[in-house]
């Protein structure tokens, strides 16, 4: 009888996350990706030959003797991006900028490259998706022409490295890593093997030449960065470029930063002449901004993105539903959170919402996920239900529990200070938060309440019709 060959242990590995298995499967058992499990050959549990030590070219030195000047940051000239990076680009750093198609990644990086070059620093912009003429056309529209900005339309990695040797830039922009390919790896451009090899080569060049590199990456349908998961581990900084293509607001968010905080955000606005920084973005998300007029169904809150407080306006409309099952429609807020708040309002605050259509939206395309916006959402819904406008120049922050209680939120002092700076004079906060606010101007009225019902009763939003 012929002997059956025993499968080699851990002979297959997932190129996405490194998960191993003894037999081939179509879907990875760890990251659940399809088509990423490939054969890696037999691997023994011990080394076939001992590794021989090699004399290093540079001896290890005490950390106190290492010169830190080589890692000093250099500002890019785009203040909002510098904020996210922690103050600028570090020489030798590799930055991955990912975002959906059409969100403006190429436009942003062209302006970064132009701002870098206009300060007398040589820049190389490599595009694998456009021609140099197309890039110049966009640069003319955004005012990004500079003699120190060099363009190259290439897809071959070896040719790109040749351009780096010839130009000698201090900043390299690669748009995008999925279009680059190298003969040193198998597969088509954009594949897992090609993307990993191209990124590894760019990282080696960046460290060797102390060259700052920014790489554009595509995202998948679920919003994650396309390519192997190890791509995010290879680079130093991972930035996510977010925004609704139907809105001009854009946000750069750091999800990984070896040289600074990973919770900072930068704000931009897409206009006809390119992307413009928005150092004070609160006005984009409000229609009142502390004004003297107020309408039913409107309430202002302050969210925190990273460490930056942002004003957001919550609007609600409540109407009698002609349907057996009333509508619950939301835009810019979490639908499950609004459903919970609607139930709490009906059960704990005597709001008649069982037969009403409830619509909740934000102004300016803002995306509000901060639980501190719970109180503002509840106030807006109750205001629309009773058709009673809240006082002008009023804001509310607080998280609501299922029992209707209000919970204190982090950063209350920063939130209130931002609202006061923009002209708001009435502040509704959870009870106990008043001590965190410190000394406030005498014209500011702080109202601390322990429950959502108590907050509604202050403005006559409980009882009546």
TrEMBL record:
A Pfam family reported for this protein in Swiss-Prot or TrEMBL: AAA_25
UniProt: ATP binding residues: 99-106
Chain ranges for the short sequence motif RadA KNRFG motif as given in the UniProt record: 256-260
CDD domains: RadA_SMS_N
Domain RecA family profile: residue ranges: 70-219
A GO biological-process term: recombinational repair
Presence of the UniProt keyword ATP-binding in the record: yes
Alphabetic keyword roster: ATP-binding, DNA damage, DNA repair, DNA-binding, Hydrolase, Metal-binding, Nucleotide-binding, Stress response, Zinc, Zinc-finger
Entry GO MF terms: ATP binding; ATP-dependent DNA damage sensor activity; damaged DNA binding; hydrolase activity; zinc ion binding
Matching SUPFAM superfamilies: P-loop containing nucleoside triphosphate hydrolases (SSF52540), Ribosomal protein S5 domain 2-like (SSF54211)
RNA-binding recorded as keyword: no
Function: DNA-dependent ATPase involved in processing of recombination intermediates, plays a role in repairing DNA breaks. Stimulates the branch migration of RecA-mediated strand transfer reactions, allowing the 3' invading strand to extend heteroduplex DNA faster. Binds ssDNA in the presence of ADP but not other nucleotides, has ATPase activity that is stimulated by ssDNA and various branched DNA structures, but inhibited by SSB. Does not have RecA's homology-searching function.
Entry's free-text remark on domains: The middle region has homology to RecA with ATPase motifs including the RadA KNRFG motif, while the C-terminus is homologous to Lon protease.
Family assignment from sequence similarity: Belongs to the RecA family. RadA subfamily.
NCBIfam families: sms
Protein name stated in the entry: DNA repair protein RadA
